[in-house]
Amino acid sequence: MRLPSRLAPRTAPSGRQQGAALATVLFLMLAVLMMSVSSTRAALMAAKSARVERDRHVALAAAEAALFDAERDIDGAAGPASPRAAIFALGDAGAFMEGCTGGAERTGLCRLVAAPGVPAWQATDLAGDRAVEYGRFSGRAMPTGAGLLPSRLPRYLVELLTVPGAQPRYRITAIGFGADAATVVVLQGYYARASGIAPGKRLGWREIANWPELHRAAS
Length: 219
Description:
By secondary structure, the chain is an alpha+beta fold. It is built from four helices and six strands; from the N terminus they run ααβαβββββα. Strands 1, 2, 3, 4, 5 and 6 form a six-stranded mixed beta sheet that branches. The radius of gyration is 32 Å and the shape is elongated. The termini are far apart.
């Protein structure tokens, strides 16, 4: 006796059908895994980019602070009785040494190198002892070495651009460091010293983004 169709027993799926179902499931799992990996990688790259950009801003702020500190130095922040202030007040061109090799009150003062020679700001290690550490002559302080603070104090060099008798003009080159010491920003400004009651004036500034490469080439 034949059973009605609605009561007929179900037949087991064939091996081919089972294989196709398994392949579909595996494909879907692989697709989900790939999307997860891609999303994770994108999130990590975004976080890394944010850290790098944040660190660059720290270095930039430090370099800007060093520029201002150098300008205060030029205007006599060390005090009227100090040898350092006297150099700028008298326009003592002899205090600006070839290769920035002066010490004590002459630290960081560089003789201008005529073209086609390599300029002092390019040949001298801005991170080294020949450059002036922030606050050395101005007495100002800057916290460093913790959290999002600069890893170390910024530094600067000063070159005398004008001949004796003219209103002194200087080229300042400053380096700032990020929380990661490998992150650096180099800024360069041009400054006219205060004359009489007139305040000093920054004449212009720029960022030298490729200073590490320039310095390596000069070295």
